[in-house]
Automatic annotation (TrEMBL):
GO terms for molecular function: glucose-6-phosphate dehydrogenase activity. Its EC number is 1.1.1.49. It is an enzyme of class 1 (oxidoreductase). This is Glucose-6-phosphate 1-dehydrogenase. Keywords: Carbohydrate metabolism, Glucose metabolism, NADP, Oxidoreductase. Signal peptide: none annotated. Substrate binds at residues 179, 183, 217, 236, 340. Belongs to the glucose-6-phosphate dehydrogenase family.
């Protein structure tokens, strides 16, 4: 099966932080893949910017290495590599000083008919200063700006940052990336819900018992411990990725996939989240921190060792029982959990349906398990619908729970594109559907802030869990108290 490739309009993409980790691991490989598929127009241009003094050639050598490190060798054998590298040039400029900016302006203005895109792959404290200089040098006029999380560390700082950016770029040219929205399976959630008549009539509290959203990582924080310790799992994963997933599950059908139609519906979900504060925090949240343990068959250090500190109250695990207070979802818990150094890397959404209202079978046929829809985001992307069927064979009826199993890798023999491939080109297309609008980000912080505050007020350290397990036992108790259980690995 081949993918349909529609080339985008000519663009000049300026990447700030071009020698950083995000550019190296994600942006350069993603752009190359789109080029390889023939989606970049001949004159698309990419300008790298960072403080380091590099020539165009040195930057191209850096990019070549990034491709070698992150792209399979067989995709690097053709003439496409040199064609891609020829698109790249480099300007040394500092967000806090004027040096280099006139040269950058000249390079961008050399292509007046191109769509100018500015990707801020830098530390967040530079977002404001870079936007200001883009404005000062006349580059913001038609430009689109792309920023990454963290967008603030609480509501106040997010509002301040959004205002700073908003003074230079109007909202319809601000692209806030949540890379989870660019993942194939996350978009598939919309296809599943809105391109099938089957699910929508059941998609409510009359038929759904509960929803689980798990984003589990096997890796620890490793060399990102410095940043991570200022954030923690709530800010790093829940405020953005997990709440976005929750929104896509819980939102009303939008009238279209138009950016604002979708984002209006997501915003309503965020605003309908039941507040969690000092009163209910202990009953509905669990925070944990990993201790030394085992992962992938080897011993791994604890969080404090990775951080190089004897103390930290930063959580590397969070579980929350969330509720969406509206007619569709009243009484349906959304159990959310995420953590580092868990038993395996798995991200999935489990929609658990209610049991059948009455059994016509004899008690000895075995329990009638509830139907479940499992959307596996990664790895092994796919969808499973668990049903009860009759065990084959003669004799009386025996029932068994089996999945209708749709593995994307088996069904579509195409490479699963990285989220950034889709998202960067959506910026060029001017399609904001998969980007977070300002009010969404702020509504998410509005829900998260009181939880963080309640944790601070409680002054309790995060609960320890052994690396390589599913988190603190309190997280298991959180769901089992309600007579339910966490489901892992497509179960
Ligand atoms: C990032 C977080 O946004 O998402 C990281 O900052 C996390 O801590 C990562 O590891 C997970 O992304 P993915 O695509 O690997 O699931």
């Amino acid at each position: 099966m081949t993918s349909r490739v529609i080339p985008v309009a000519p663009f000049t993409l300026t990447v700030f932080g071009a020698t950083g980790d995000l550019a190296r691991r994600k942006l350069i490989p993603a752009l190359f893949h789109r080029d390889l598929d023939g989606q970049l127009p001949d004159d698309a241009t990419i300008i790298g910017v960072s403080r380091r003094a590099l020539s165009d050639e040195q930057f191209r050598a850096f990019a070549r290495q990034a491709l070698t490190d992150h792209i399979p060798g067989n995709e690097l054998e053709g003439p496409e590599v040199d064609r891609f590298l020829a698109r790249l040039s480099y300007v040394a400029a500092d967000a806090d000083a004027d040096g280099g900016w006139s040269e950058l302006a000249q390079r961008v203005e050399a292509f007046p008919e191109h769509i100018p895109v500015y990707y801020l792959a830098t530390a967040p404290h530079l977002f404001g200063p870079i936007c200001e200089r883009l404005g000062k040098y006349g580059l913001a006029e038609n430009g689109r700006v792309v920023i990454e999380k963290p967008i603030g560390k609480d509501l106040k700082s997010a509002v301040a940052l959004n205002q700073q950016i908003g003074r230079i770029f109007p909202e319809d040219r601000v692209y806030r990336i949540d890379h989870y929205l660019g993942k194939e399976t996350v978009q598939n959630l919309m296809a599943l819900r809105f391109a099938n008549a089957l699910f929508e009539p059941l998609w409510n509290n009359a038929h759904i018992d509960h929803v689980q959203i798990t984003v589990a990582e096997a890796l620890g924080v490793e060399e990102r411990a410095g940043y991570y310790d200022t954030a923690g799992a709530m800010r790093d994963m829940v405020q953005n990725h997990i709440l976005q997933l929750l929104c896509l599950v819980a939102m009303e059908p939008p009238a279209s996939l138009d950016a604002d139609a979708v984002r209006d519906e997501k915003l309503k979900v965020l605003r309908a989240l039941k507040p969690i504060d000092d009163q209910n925090m202990a009953a509905v949240t669990v925070r944990g921190q990993y201790r030394a343990g085992a992962s992938a068959g080897g011993a791994v250090p604890g969080y404090l060792d990775e951080l190089g500190s004897s103390t930290s109250s930063t959580e590397t695990f969070v579980a929350v029982k969330a509720e969406v207070e509206n007619w569709r979802w009243a009484g349906v818990p959304f159990y959310l959990r995420t953590g580092k150094r868990l038993a395996s890397r798995v991200s999935e959404i489990v929609v658990g349906f209610k049991p059948v209202p009455h059994s016509v079978f004899d008690a000895n046929v075995g329990p009638i398990e509830s139907n479940r829809l499992v959307i596996r985001l990664q790895p092994d992307e796919g969808v499973k619908l668990w049903l009860m069927i009759k065990d084959p064979g003669p004799g009386g009826i025996r029932l068994t729970h089996v999945p209708l199993d749709m593995s994307f890798a088996k069904a579509f023999k195409v490479r699963n594109p990285d989220a950034y491939e889709r998202l960067i080109l959506d910026v060029v297309r001017g399609n904001q559907t998969l980007f977070m609008r300002r009010d969404e980000v702020e509504a998410a912080w509005k829900w998260v802030d009181p939880i963080l505050e309640a944790w601070r007020n409680a002054k309790e350290p995060p609960r320890p869990y052994t690396a390589g397990t599913w988190g603190p036992s309190a997280a298991i108790a959180l769901i089992e108290r309600d007579g339910r259980t966490w489901l892992e690995d497509g179960a």
